[in-house]
Design brief:
CATH superfamily of the largest domain: Aconitase, domain 3
Number of helices: 17
Strand content: 15-25%
Structural class: alpha/beta
Distance between the termini: 42 Å
Largest sheet: 5 strands, parallel
Strand order of the largest sheet: 5-4-3-6-7
Length: 474
Amino acid sequence: MNSKTLFDKIWDSHVVKSIEDGPDVLYIDRHYIHEVTSPQAFNGLKERSIPVFRPGKTLATADHNIPTRNQHLQIKDQLSRNQVERLSENCQKYGIELFGLNDPKNGIVHVIGPELGYTLPGMTIVCGDSHTSTHGAFGTIAFGIGTSEVEMVLATQCILQPKPKRMRITLDGKLHKGVTSKDIIMFIISRISASGATGYFVEYCGSAIRSLSMEGRMTICNMSIEMGARGGLIAPDETTFEYLKKLPSIPGIDDLEASVNKWKNLHSDTDAVFDKELKFDAASIKPMITYGTNPGMGMAIDDTIPLSDDNGNKASSSFLKSLDYMGFKPGMKLLGHPIDYVFIGSCTNGRIEDFRAFAQIIKGRRKAENVTALIVPGSKKVEDQMVAEGLTELYKNAGFEVRQPGCSSCLAMNEDKIPLGKYAVSTSNRNFEGRQGPGARTLLASPLSAAAAAITGKISDPRDFMTEEEKVKI
């Protein structure tokens, strides 16, 4: 028997048919949908009088452009309101489970899937959203698809997909104080560039990866797409199984122990061959921040902006254009640079662990007067946890306002926009021009770095605000 990578094991077991010199017909175990990329797909089904083939395999939520204030009221923006209403109508028509606005299970699709037990090891998972790669943290093949492909999956529960190449990224060693999973993935992207994994599906492994919580692993896999990868995954282990065992229920699983025993076989064989191998030392990673307009333009928070782009082209026009948009120059330090907004949330860092980390630095301090903070939990469950653990009250006492769940300022499809020319330290995943609002300047960072900026009003090193006990915890 040939040795296989984890990716190959899952992929090959889901191939319905291989088309000669073409893509595979891949069966999909779980299909997530939301209000933005599903309306056109449902219209396609309606026009051709095609039903949803297996509605029980699809799960829906409203998240991308919903407001994060007064969710009990009618949505003001007409386009957003129409999309949310269409989602509700389509789910009712086709018998699809929907966690809509104000539902206690509502939240960002890539947050609620895992926390409600719908994301399980060995699955194939798709969604009309690029950050579907998040679910790879559980040992799944999860990737984003386009609207026409959403229609294809609704109609057939399959998708035509060429098989990607396989890459393994190994991270061994011990992480330093104040270094989070967000810093890990930003470091990797800064080293290989925003296109360095194009055409690959990435498996992350090594002692530093195994040391991460499930929340941390989800952050890593979430941003795989930001280095051009089709997706990323991590082999399930005891950390994965303990996370699943603590869930109130897992739909479709009657005997969890039997399932766990099966999932223990989900790993790359010892002598499995990857198309590309990369190795990094965890001890070389510091808290990170971006300085440009793609996630590959990142550096250690106490470093200086490089004098050349990631291809070694000194002061290339595109590199300088990016810095000009940000109001920065080559060789400049960012520590101490004033900022205007802080955003903590998104499918990258909108889980309870992220808000706990944020609180560790905020505790006993106050928000800087010049900073507008957008604190947006990733789901109703996270929102409830924040209240139960006293985090919401802690934030309130420090001068912050906690919003209601949604994608919010990650992509600014609602009212949570960063104004023209303003700087935002954001825990989201993309810093493209205008991503958080027309002319907005985004600096990606971890929840710890976002907290440090929120209390100082400027880019600050989070390690300067951590006690000795906290340095050990994170």
